[in-house]
Amino acid sequence: MLAAMELRCITFDLDDTLWACAPVIRRAEYAFHAWLEAHYPRITQRLDAEALIRHRQDWFSPRAHRYPDLTVLRKEWLQELARQYGYDGDLVEPGFRVFWDARNEVELFDAVMDTLEALSRHYRLGAITNGNADVHRIGIGGFFDFVVTASRTGAAKPAAEIFTAALDEAGVAAGEALHVGDDPERDVKGAARVGMRTAWVNTHLAPWPGGPYPDLMVRGVGELPGRLAALGWHRAGAAAGD
Q: 195's torsion region: left (phi>0), alpha (psi -120 to 50) or beta?
């Protein structure tokens, strides 16, 4: 069993850690296509919803490594989409807003709300995300003391800079922080490289892909309070089990 430790801060990935990302993005892509159909029909006459998704993926793929900010990447794609079909840049901002509004209509995994509420009473909570979800719009922002994004730091997970920015926000040492996320490379290995403890959210019980193991594995964040108590990873200044 891992040694007891004082834990002052817990950071969370968002997509696929607190909710399933793929269905959210798919619904948002279809909402955007419907909006285009009403306002920019030359595009949808040539591209149905699935073809538009492929167009976006094909455009993103060779460029994503140069754009840690997914909002900027999507807006650049919208600018190109407008140009290709003979429209001006007036499409970009309202088109992005339609997508973004739908992108923040998420269905939280079971126990997420209760878990965040319970943990926020004892730890500083933060979110570390490469995406553009808005915890305040989703309705869970009140549980978080800070949010660190790739767009703000100019670096995306697994880069060290985004994790160290979160540690600076929290005002804690790496060894006093636990990062919780679903992605073995971006979340677990990225956080571990800067010295944070790690919890892998492995919903489907996938095999570990290799390399140093996470400190914890859970099927969902609802397991965290019990697992932390069992390990003696208590909040700073409190007795283990308090």
A: left
**For residues 156-189, b (16+ Cβ closer than 10 Å) or e, as one string?**
bbbbebbbbbbbebbebebebbbbbbbbbebbbb
Q: Within 13 Å, how many C-alpha atoms sit on residue 67's CB side?
A: 17
At residue 145, φ and ψ (nearest 5 deg) are -80, -25
CA diameter of the chain? 66
Does residue 168 contact residue 160 with C-beta atoms inside 8 Å?
A: no
- Pair 123, 199: CB distance under 8 Å: no
pLDDT in tens, 95-119: 999 999 999 999 999 999 999 999 9
Our measurement of the distance from residue 3's CA atom to the centroid of its chain's CA atoms, rounded to an integer in Å, reads: 29
Report the 3 state secondary structure along 66-108. Answer: HCCCHHHHHHHHHHHHHHHCCCCHHHHHHHHHHHHHHHCCCCE
Give the CA angle between residues 43, 44, 50 to the nearest 5°.
115
Distance CA 32, CA 47 (A): 12
For residue 234, the model assigns a pLDDT of 66
Q: How many CB atoms lie within 10 A of CB 48?
A: 12
Cα 237 to Cα 235: distance, rounded to the nearest angstrom: 6
